[in-house]
Amino acid sequence: MPKDVSSSEAVALELMKVYLHMGYTVAMDNWYYSPDLFKKLVKEKTNVLGTEHVNKKIMLKVYKKMNLKKGEARVLSSRREAAFKWRDKKDVHLLSSYHKDLEVTKTGKLLFKTKEAVVKPKIVMDYNVQMNTVDR
Questions:
Q1: Residue 2 domain-assigned?
Q2: Per-residue pLDDT tens for 80-123?
Q3: Residue 118 forms part of a structural domain
Q4: CB 83 within 8 A of CB 77
Q5: Which residues, other chains included, contact 42 with Cβ-Cβ below 8 Å and sequence gap of 6+?
Q6: Which residues does the UniProt record annotate as the domain PiggyBac transposable element-derived protein (predicted)?
Q7: What is the pTM of this model?
Q8: Which residues are CB-contacts of 31 (< 8 A; sequence separation ≥ 6)?
Q9: Residue 126, CA distances (Å) to 77, 130, 134 in order
């Protein structure tokens, strides 16, 4: 294992090596996510979608200080990646190499009191779908 690769990065890269350069998407939780792994996978033509701890040093200060109400979301994006913050019961932080905006989608559920459709950011729905396939 090269010196510049952490053990969790090494596991992810080893598992993905036959799928690199094929346009697949890797969904990862905050245990495996690192900015270095993100960059390495994107460089290898692989999309990345994952959660991140807000207390990591690499998170932007402006991103940490955003106070959102339940259901609100914000995105900070660049050409190669986007950082999303969404408030559900607590703050949810996601990073993606292919989601660039705050597209929302209906969840198929209704709010109990108002019977309005429940909506979530598409990135959250995509992450949940990807991670549920892993957890089964």
A1: no
A2: 888 888 998 888 889 899 988 888 888 888 888 898 888 899 99
A3: yes
A4: yes
A5: 48, 80, 81, 97
A6: 4-136
A7: 0.79
A8: 8
A9: 18, 6, 13
